[in-house]
UniProtKB/TrEMBL annotation:
One of its GO terms (biological process) is amino acid transport. It holds the Pfam family Peripla_BP_6. The lineage of its organism: Bacteria, Pseudomonadati, Pseudomonadota, Alphaproteobacteria, Hyphomicrobiales. It comes from the Bacteria. Residues 1-24 form the signal peptide. This is Branched-chain amino acid transport system substrate-binding protein. Keywords: Amino-acid transport, Signal, Transport.
Length: 381
């Protein structure tokens, strides 16, 4: 299916490929960054939606109606995402939109979806997407603020109170940097030194040297996503810095370990999801059956490891289809209302319970503190 996107075949062709028998259908739209700088996030999202819609239609669709998935590749461009959101609503007549691989594309899509009163499930992490609460916008990843809180919990447990921070200046990195600064006093964390880097930078040794030489630093935190954190991790190792290092959930994938290098990434900690440790979950874990099944199907179909970002798309589609099923309707307003009443829905990322005041539906228990060991993910001790 990726060939359709790369060859820029009209989305209608892709939509037809994802449709079952020619009778009543429910149109769901998507705009993801399947190519471009955020492709390592958007590609598994695309593949996941493709796989799940095909499987859904094979099983009879939703309430007996087939699902037509109309999906565009915005390449991580916020302007393209806005254009595709408009097209999905005005031309393709979708009843809900999934997407926004990055914070920038999510913010573009939500402005269009809110104006048209179409439910939108974002796949990006920044807290600005769902705070303040907007009537038609929801999201599946934990917020960057929650990631800061989970990391600080672990730091406090290990006795760290003085840290250095090096953050990307992209939308996600800047947002998480601000959130980590904001909640640091709650955990009595002192940010001794705060450095930044541009996502296009190829070397961060200058900033890391400053952090290494800063007095009293006990651990280092890197808010960011994309290739930047992998470069930070490699440079960190090259400089021989032995302080514990934490990354964000924005790099929770096997691809990050490969880019950074197993040796450089060894011992690094970050907040992640149950999906990354599916084979280590206890049978009594409420997420275990779902994440194990999703992981097996994805890896069998695509011959590549499942990752956190595909899990975000998995949950977005789950939330929409569950809402349509419960509402007994594919009218956007009724889908929105049903989403807001979702309670105890187990997904790959966590267990969702939405409300009029909460359009994320997750708490800190949905995060697992993970550690990289021998080139893979394990529960941090």
């Amino acid at each position: 299916m990726m060939n359709f996107l790369k060859a820029t075949v009209p989305a209608a062709v892709l939509a037809l490929a994802m449709t079952g028998a020619a009778h009543a259908e429910i149109r769901i739209g998507a705009s993801v960054s399947a190519t471009g700088p955020a492709a390592f996030l958007g590609d598994p999202e695309f593949k996941t939606l493709e796989m799940l819609v095909a499987e859904l239609n094979e099983k009879g669709g939703i309430n007996g109606e087939q699902v037509k998935l109309i999906m565009y590749d915005d390449g991580g461009d916020a302007n393209k995402a806005r254009t595709f959101a408009t097209r999905l609503i005005e031309d393709d007549e979708v009843v809900a939109i999934i997407g926004g691989t990055t914070t920038g594309t999510s913010m573009s899509i939500l402005s269009v979806a809110e104006d048209a009163e179409i439910p939108f499930i974002a796949l990006a992490g920044a807290i600005e997407i769902i705070q303040p609460v907007r009537p038609y916008t929801f999201k599946t990843p934990h917020t960057d603020r929650m990631a800061c809180q989970k990391i600080y919990e672990d730091m406090v447990k290990r006795g760290f109170t003085k840290i250095g921070m090096i953050s990307g200046t992209d939308g996600f990195g800047a947002s998480m940097e601000a959130q980590c600064k904001n909640v640091a006093p709650d955990y009595k964390i002192d940010i001794v030194i705060d450095e930044t880097y541009d996502p296009k930078d190829a070397d961060m040794t200058a900033q890391l040297t400053k952090i290494r030489n800063a007095p009293g630093v006990q651990a280092v935190l890197n808010p960011g996503f994309g290739q930047g954190p992998s470069i930070v991790t490699r440079n960190y190792h090259q400089l021989g810095i032995e302080l514990p290092m934490y990354q964000s959930h924005g790099v929770a994938s096997s691809g990050f370990i490969k880019l950074a290098g197993e040796q450089a990434a060894e011992g690094l900690r970050l907040p992640g999801t149950a999906l990354l440790i599916a084979d280590q979950l206890d049978a009594s874990d409420p997420q275990q059956p779902l994440v194990t099944a999703y992981k097996a199907k994805f890896e069998e179909r695509y011959k590549m490891p499942v990752d956190t970002f595909g899990g975000y798309a998995h949950d977005a589609l789950l939330i929409v289809t569950d809402a349509i099923t419960r509402a007994g309707s594919a009218e956007p307003k009724e889908i929105r209302d049903a989403i807001e009443k979702t309670s105890g829905l187990a997904g790959a990322t966590g267990i969702y319970t939405f409300s009029p005041e909460d359009h994320l539906g997750l708490d800190l228990t949905a995060f697992r503190m993970l550690q990289i060991k021998d080139g893979g993910w394990t529960v941090a001790e």
